[in-house]
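Open question from group meeting: does this chain pack into something compact, or does most of it stay loose? Before anyone orders reagents, we agreed to write out a predicted structure and look at it together. Recording both the input and the output here so the notebook holds the full record.
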Amino acid sequence: MMNKSEKTQYKDNVIDKLFIALFSRKMAKAVGKSTNFKGYDGFVDLSQQIMKGRTAQQQQELVAIVLKSLVPSPALYLIRNLFSPTKWVCESNAWFATILFEWLVGKSEIKEIEIVTEDNQINRQKSGVKIKKCRYLEESGCVGMCINMCKLPTQKFFTESFGIPLTMTPDFEDLSCEMIFGKYPPALETEEASRQPCLQTYCPTANISSEPCPKIYQ
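Structure tokens returned:
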């Protein structure tokens, strides 16, 4: 596990700051609270406020509201009904993710992956995104926040609202993450993430045991 002293330093540009401000404003409206922190620290603080006093399901539902508020309903309808998850569509989404999400998750790169089709054919396509070290996970230090505030609602948003399947697989050892557009997300209980203990090095309220992080399901 990495040491806190190795924490990545970010220098947000004007566009990054605009995205952070937009998301933070939407989150503040959804949670009905504000934050005293600036920039990305404020964004993380609002995420923590959303977690407080809410079940895992309620957290996911609130984040879903925030995500849907960022895209006009007519646009969601058109994307969902006019664009099937073809190889081109999935690869395009992967490319956009590396550009649009850098402020949120840090540097990432396109990778080629294999998709198993409904008729058991294997398609190779560049619709995978490797997040080298997730900024959101590193800054929050929380497994539960990663799963309930990012992984699950983002998967559901793309898969159901956009009609483009997405599976996200975080690596809690090196804080990287893999996004695969075109792959339907499995049930959480079948994934290793569901059994991930607290990050002792990062989480100030870590549960000192080998049991799964209590915030995953609470």
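Observations to bring back to the group:
Residues 1-5 have pLDDT under 50 and may be disordered.
Strands lie at 108-116, 122-131, 166-171, 176-181.
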